[in-house]
Amino acid sequence: MTVISVGVGDNIQSAIDIAGVGDTVSVAAGTYTNQFLSITKSMTLSASGGLARIDASVSPPNGKAAITVGVPGIAVTIAGFAISGVTVPDNNGAAIRYEGGDLTLRDDWFYNNQEGVLGANDPNGNILMDHLEIAFNGDGSGHTHGVYVNQLASFTITNSYIHDTAVGHEIKSRAANNTITNNRIFDNNGSASYSIDLPNGGNASIRNNVIQQGSNTQNPAIIAYGEEGLAYASNNVTLSGNTIVNDNPGGYGILNPTSVGPTNFIGNSVWNLTNPLGGDVLAIRPVLDLLPISFITTPPPPIPPPTPPPTKPGKGHGRGKPR
Known about the structure:
Blueprint: E1 3-6, H1 12-18, E2 24-31, E3 37-39, E4 43-55, E5 65-69, E6 75-79, E7 81-84, E8 94-98, E9 102-106, E10 109-111, E11 115-119, E12 122-130, E13 133-135, E14 147-149, E15 152-158, E16 161-163, E17 171-173, E18 177-181, E19 184-186, E20 196-198, E21 203-207, E22 210-213, E23 221-225, E24 236-240, E25 243-246, E26 252-255, E27 262-266, E28 268-271, E29 279-281
Parallel strand pairs: 1-2, 2-4, 3-5, 4-6, 4-7, 5-8, 6-9, 7-10, 8-11, 9-12, 10-13, 11-14, 12-15, 13-16, 14-17, 15-18, 16-19, 17-20, 18-21, 19-22, 20-23, 21-24, 22-25, 23-26, 24-27, 25-28, 28-29
């Protein structure tokens, strides 16, 4: 396995192109303005010495993302990247656009894009996200989200901070198996709809998260399950060990119009919800940890202040399928 080094000012795509299967492209910490990348072979793309920043001030030439990655059957890891400013004419501009295979994202920061992570269908594909901050994404249309992955074998997000999405959902997954553990999922002053949306059901383990629904939310439900119809033979949800804070008058825990679905509500703590979701009802609102992720590579640059939330649209906005 070969390590190919990229210095500040060098072209990252050129290194990706010459890398062999299983090689690592090591990118020096710094800013790489308007470098848009495509990865279609198994490899690792990793920052060295701090975060490697891709700041977009123009639309990606492929109309998709800062990094477009994957085809069925390959395995790619991307670590230590900060990506911001991605917009495209169809409003689906993403920091990361997944198109198949196995993708691992670790120690990354995606903010102020139309989409944070957008994933296409791959019934054999798997996405793992660990130690990410995904913040202030969404264009306010309700069709863009912090994280949105389509029909995969599995989706996992752990040890991450997802927050302040505009109108869309903080996390939306159509995967058959979902693991959402040890995260902070906060609307804060943002205007997100659902905190977690699993519109096609499937299996899910939602454990040990702190979830906060904000006062500017577009939908009163915090978690939605199967509201667009069940797509899988196996449908089971464990909701355990979570702290759920509701700052929206009239907010409630789970929207589930299906005849099957969420079970195993164990050991949760809730504040300002009418239904306890299988745990303790807190008398005092917990103090939330609003600190940014402490990156392994280097502390992130400061997050720019968010724009004011849009005027609250009619009930149900933000539930539609993306373009």
